[in-house]
Each structure stands twice: as C-alpha cells, then as structure tokens.
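Whiteboard transcription, Tuesday session. T.W. wrote the structure tokens on the left side:
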C-alpha cells in the first residue's frame, strides 16, 4: 500500500537528493526529489507534501523566496530550510517567511532524521488540534437548549449560574429529557469552552474496570496492566467530566469520588502518591437518589457534595408548548439541506401524545418519519407507539379529557381513540370493533382512512 504522507526535497544537488531518498526508503512516507523551485511548485500544485526540505540556493530562485508560494499551495506543510551558507540573517529570514526549521550543510543523516520526524509529528499534532476544534465547535452547536423561553426558562437561568462556577452540578430527570445536552451547555457556556469535555456513562462501564476507567492505573496494578493508563478524570483535567447515571457507581468507589471532589487530588489504581487535578464534575441520573440514600445504596455525603447546584429537567409531557420549536429544530438537525413540512394537524397530535421516551423519543419518531416520507411533508404521528388506556384507582385521566392538553380536531381524536383501543385489545379487530360499538368492516375502513396499519386480522 502506498504511503499517504510525502516528504518533498527541493535541492539541485542530485547526490544529496539520492542520499536522502535512500535513507528514508523504508519509512511510512514517500520521498520525492526535484531540482528546481519551478519543479517544486508544479509538484505541490498536483500533490500534497507534509514536510518540505528546501535548499537556499536553487538554479532558478532563492529558497527563502519560495517559502510563501509553497505554503500557498500546501498550507499545512512544514518547511525545513537547508543551506550550505549558514548565517543568522538567512535563518531569521527563512523563519519569518514560514519555515519550520533550519539546518546547515553538511549535516549528519541522523540530524536530518530528527528534524524530519519532528516536523511530521508537529504536522500530526496540528491536525489533531484542528479536529478537536471542529469537534468542540460541533458539540457547542448541539448544546442548544430548546425551550429556554418556555418550559426550560428556570433551567436556563440555572445553567448560566452553573457555567460561571466550578462547583459540582447534579442533573436529574427522566430518561431522554436531555440531561447530556444541559451538561454540554453548562460546559460550553463557561469562560473557556476550549477545555476538555469528557463524558462517561457509569452504567455502561464494567464493574471490574470502572475504577481503572475513571481514575486510571499504574503499570502492574493488576493482571494485564502492562502500561500506565490515564483515567477519565485526568483526561478532563482543566475542563468538565460528565458522569451520566451516577447512581450506578459502586459504593466502594463513591468514597474515592468524594475524596477527589473534596480535595482535588487523584491517586491512580496501584499508585502510591496523588496528583492535583482541576476537574468540574457534572453528574446526571434518572434514579431517585434520595431513596437510594435511604436504602444505603448511595452515600449521603456524596449526594450533598454533588448537589451544590441541582437542576431537574421536566418530562416532555409537562412542556408540550416546546414541542413545535423542538420539532422544527430536530428536523433541521436531522435533514439540514431539506425543506420539510410538518402540518399543523401533526403538531396537534404530537402535543397530545404522552412521550414516555421524552425528547429522545421525539427525535427518533421525526427521524423515522423523514426517512420513510414520500414527499416533502412528514407524518410522524403515524409512527407513534399505540398505548393502552390506564386503568385502576391510580390511573390518570384519559388523554382526551386532560385539561392541560390542546383541543384537537375530531378527526385526530378519533384516530387517537382507535389507536388506543387497538393497543388495549392487542390489535384484535373483532374485539376492538365490539368495544367501539361499530362493525368490524367499519373499523377496517377507518384504519384505512387514518392510514393505520391493519395489523394481523383476528
């Protein structure tokens, strides 16, 4: 396989070019040699060089004059200036024009190797930094909280307060309410959003590895620990560590987490000394931590240490006024280059749905509707999960009777009622029709009228 990286040598000394090409023959980059400035520019027009060795004296120009044109064609290239006539003026002039390094001829090949390796390493680190900046920019764009002037007005004020401090934050709420979005908003609205934002799902980490993943380990700390491993706390040093599902952390590690929060000192697994770290912890859970404290499943002191600032996110069914804005935002995020139409009748139906999966379920439904559409209009209500009506003394009022929900057109209400009835009788059309007081043929006609799947004929 041909190497993807290139070293370009621009030097009229053919013997030097041959020596460099032979020396770097088995490396992970391709070595290309040319003998003039014009050849070098022509090559860079059609190719990309990561590192360029540029001689000062060329047949058609001075090497220093070639720096700017080369960088105009290969903007990220690292130019190593080489000359048989070294002087301080030459070095300063080359560096001012964009050269990365400066070497004098004659030189040891090992000296050249160190300079070339250092240049390739610098180029790689710059690309990593650019990717990190792109990631940070995208993450900050996706940390927008929809509903800051509506159902999340109080939350938005608390986010601004939390962003201005390094105090721990505890975010609670049902699954899918957007706890991770709020955590990112706290970080990216802080004084330095370029600092690391590291997230960890404590419930997804294996119990036998969670200590190593969070706090790191020293070489030989346990079987298989062949090298030093940085934990997530160290990776987040200077920034924010988001611990999702904090209630899943084992009790024996909760004391260690409390010690880090209290003293700002981290000791790796198997380590003998601690090191200072500066990490702001944002924790989240859908668990009732007060109950977990009462049941001795979560440390009371850790609970109060995390709850310096506490934000509780309401479920989507309690902020139906935000559903329209949320839907428009999610549609644009899912299909940014498409002009999609969400009819008002669809919005009414979405607002009437209880959304047990909250915003995550809304996004899933919209994404499926966009994928399955046949034109520019989407009908997400056709994909809503049928839910049986509640029963018993503790049951909530039927959907149609809830005074907090908007008044729906009769057509929409009929459709919702049929969906609920079908779910209650496991899509048995005969029993559903009997319960609704209509003929089975009438039920099938209404299923077709409302674009509902007939399901199994029973």
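and on the right, the sequence the group agreed on:
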């Amino acid at each position: 396989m041909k190497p993807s990286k290139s070293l370009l040598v621009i030097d009229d000394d053919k013997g030097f070019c041959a020596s460099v090409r032979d020396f770097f023959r088995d490396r992970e980059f391709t070595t290309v040699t040319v003998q003039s400035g014009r050849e070098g520019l022509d090559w860079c027009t059609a190719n990309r060089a990561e590192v360029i060795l540029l001689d000062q004296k060329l047949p058609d120009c001075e090497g220093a004059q070639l720096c700017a044109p080369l960088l105009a064609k290969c903007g990220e290239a690292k130019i190593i200036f080489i000359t048989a006539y070294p002087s301080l003026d030459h070095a300063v002039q080359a560096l001012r024009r964009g050269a990365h390094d400066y070497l004098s001829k004659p030189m040891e090949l090992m000296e050249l190797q160190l300079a070339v390796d250092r240049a390739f390493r610098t180029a790689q680190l710059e690309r990593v930094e650019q990717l990190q900046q792109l990631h940070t920019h995208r993450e900050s764009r996706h940390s927008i909280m929809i509903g800051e002037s509506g159902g999340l007005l109080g939350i938005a004020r608390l986010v601004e307060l939390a962003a201005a401090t390094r105090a721990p934050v505890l975010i609670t709420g049902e699954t899918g309410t957007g706890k991770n979005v709020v955590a990112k908003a706290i970080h990216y609205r802080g004084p330095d959003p370029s600092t690391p934002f590291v997230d960890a799902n404590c419930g997804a980490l294996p119990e036998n590895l969670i200590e190593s993943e969070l706090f790191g380990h020293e070489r030989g700390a346990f079987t298989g620990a062949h090298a030093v491993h940085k934990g997530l706390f160290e990776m987040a040093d200077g920034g924010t560590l988001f611990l999702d599902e904090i209630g899943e952390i084992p009790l024996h590690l909760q004391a260690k987490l409390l010690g880090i929060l209290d003293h700002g000192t981290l000791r790796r697994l198997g380590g003998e000394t601690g090191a200072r770290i500066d990490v702001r912890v944002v924790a989240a859970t859908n668990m009732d931590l007060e109950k977990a404290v009462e049941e001795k499943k979560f440390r009371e002191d850790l609970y109060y240490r995390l709850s310096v600032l506490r934000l509780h996110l309401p479920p989507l069914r309690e902020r139906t006024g935000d559903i329209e804005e949320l839907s428009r935002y999610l549609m644009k995020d899912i299909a940014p280059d498409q002009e999609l139409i969400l009819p008002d009748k669809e919005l009414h139906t979405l607002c009437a749905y209880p959304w047990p999966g909250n915003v995550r379920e809304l996004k899933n439904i919209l994404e499926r509707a966009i994928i399955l559409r046949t034109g520019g209009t989407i009908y997400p209500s056709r994909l809503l999960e049928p839910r049986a009506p509640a029963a018993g003394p503790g049951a909530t009022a039927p959907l149609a009777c809830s005074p907090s929900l908007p008044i729906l057109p009769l057509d929409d209400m009929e459709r919702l009622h049929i969906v609920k009835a079908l779910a209650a009788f496991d899509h048995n059309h005969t029993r559903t029709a009997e319960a609704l007081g209509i003929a089975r043929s009438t039920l099938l006609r209404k299923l077709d009228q409302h674009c509902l799947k007939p399901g199994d004929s029973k």
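Someone added at the bottom: The domain at 161-313 is CATH 3.40.50.300 (Rossmann fold).
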